[in-house]
């Protein structure tokens, strides 16, 4: 289904879109923490997560639910972007209050809601730039047109999302500089990322920490290293030239490995299944066969 965005008819992305090509690329796992930190560093989002989310008690469950939600509105899983948009709007209606600094917040604050959407696009762009092939100017603008269409399906008004990617980057930099902060939610997220809790009580502690300790160090490297420097300083996170060299070495290694992987391993599993199904459906339609329209 199409949507009206800033006076133009926009179509949700499909199998041949820039968004589908990049959003679920497997190296994105290295930048997922960065995206989450950018979100909760916004005062409204951070307060909502701190007061209304079960992230501190169940980080794995929260991460999985977020992953499933993005698959719904980006790849049309389940009932697609429209249904997921209605669900998210209903879910966030009651998330409001007064934060620890006495500031009133509401999860449906238009700027904060749009900020979360913007960080998802930035996550995709930065993943490609760091661990793959950077998007061209044309791809960036096409991706953002597609992402604005997704935003419309999620209930974000066109006026709250810049018209071009260049303008979006300017808004990103301004928000980082003037709005984002270190808060209890950023502390909690960093703790969950670098010292993750054991996902199952049946997993022996020694075995878990044997895996979790080096994994936490790796996640800290990729998360702290890809944060905007000004935000990194605001959070009092150390970053050295040695750290930077290690990140660059890791990025080169991931790029080389990822480009050699067979296609099914270059994407998150569920996203790849959806992409393959929709490609097959498209070929059937082009041959004149009958197939139900893509969920949107």
TrEMBL record:
Stored InterPro entries: MPAB/Lcp_cat_dom
Name of the protein this chain belongs to: ER-bound oxygenase mpaB/mpaB'/Rubber oxygenase catalytic domain-containing protein
GO molecular function: oxidoreductase activity
Organism: Saccharomonospora marina XMU15
Phylogenetic classification of the source organism: Bacteria, Bacillati, Actinomycetota, Actinomycetes, Pseudonocardiales
Pfam families: MPAB_Lcp_cat
Domain ER-bound oxygenase mpaB/mpaB'/Rubber oxygenase catalytic: 20-255
Highest rank taxon of the organism: Bacteria
